Amino acid sequence: MARTEVHSTSSATLSKLAQVSQNVQERWLRRVSAWLLLLFLLQGELGAVWDREWHAFVGRDQFWTPPHTLIYSCVAGAGLLALAVVLIETFRYRGHVPGVDDTSTVPIFRFFHAPLGFSVLGFGALLSLIAAPLDNYWHELYGIDIALWAPFHMMGVTGGLIGMLGMVYVFASEAAIERQSGATPRRFLGLTALELGITMAMGSIMNYVLTGFLQFPVVTVGTIHISTYPLPLIAGCVMFMIAALRTTQRAGIATLLTFVLFLHTLAVELFVPWAIRTAVAQQAIPYRVANLVPEFRLDYAFLPAAFLLSAVIIDGIAYLRVRKTGSPNSSMLQTIIQGIIVTLPIVFFTPLILRDYTPYAPIFLPEKGVPFEPAQMTAIVIISLFIAMAVGALGAWLGEDFGDIWRWNRR
């Protein structure tokens, strides 16, 4: 009898150890894949800005330009990695491997089962890849100087944005699993490695928004042209500053996110002008405008400074709430009011930083040689500020909702 009990206890112990080992393998698979995806994302960022500047300085004589090669190798690599994880996780789900069940995966087409983040990322990558040949055909029809708002540009941009949001889900779900497991991982600046991954992914999305800001359309009202580029900056920055705070529950994260964004813009400005000059020299191709050679621009590199005051305001309010209630969270109404308040520094500082970078830096551009009526200008300024604050409120609302989802979602 004693031998039977010992044997039963030993079997249970071995079974438990096997489950722990399989769960460790599951965590390793997802987390290593997440960091590899982050490397692909950084590659895609550099390629996207390189492509924008390549169009401006060189043109587009073929589809396989150097920046396109960088972009689509990134998209293909991330997509194939996501597909591999989906297939592996489906196999593990059907094998009832610990850690792979309905609480940590989502069904896809009723047959596949995979983490939500990898599923979203895979569909985003697929959308961008489908857009590539269609965009090439569009350029063949209408030439190289196609605006960002061309349909297949937007299709590719949308796919990229979906993929990057999926990447945040990947890191956030692992952070939620780690948090709920009761583990005590090492921290840096108060954040775990996975929370740093979330911050880096959000910084990449914010830089992605900056990539196309100069391409946003100009609205004409009477004799006044209105630059709309501050709107995506406001929406993106407010949303992800709030989302980062709600996800990590750390006062100070909005300021850290701004610093991460600065590292991105600095890396872009160090890489892209050099890459264009090198590629042009190697291929012996001319610039579109003689003697107009890309150079490092300090103003673009320091564009995140326009968001610093907004970040400090968000973090300051969060710190005061932690002191008072123990939580950095505000109510939905308070969050929306924060979004409206932090919009104003972005609207004020961005044109100042970009004044030498682009002629469209001023938000309001009167028609040259045509005087405008002060009353008309006043009305347009007031309406534009209301629109900007509404966009900030929308960004704050989305940031709170997405942040709460990322905080608790384990899938």
UniProtKB/TrEMBL annotation:
Q: Where are the transmembrane segments?
A: 32-50, 70-91, 111-134, 146-172, 193-214, 226-245, 252-276, 300-320, 332-354, 374-398
Indicate yes or no for the key word Methyltransferase: no
Which keywords accompany this UniProt record?
A: Membrane, Transmembrane, Transmembrane helix
Per its UniProt entry, which superkingdom is the organism in? Bacteria
Quick check: keyword Cell cycle in the entry? Answer: no
Q: What is this protein called?
A: Uncharacterized protein
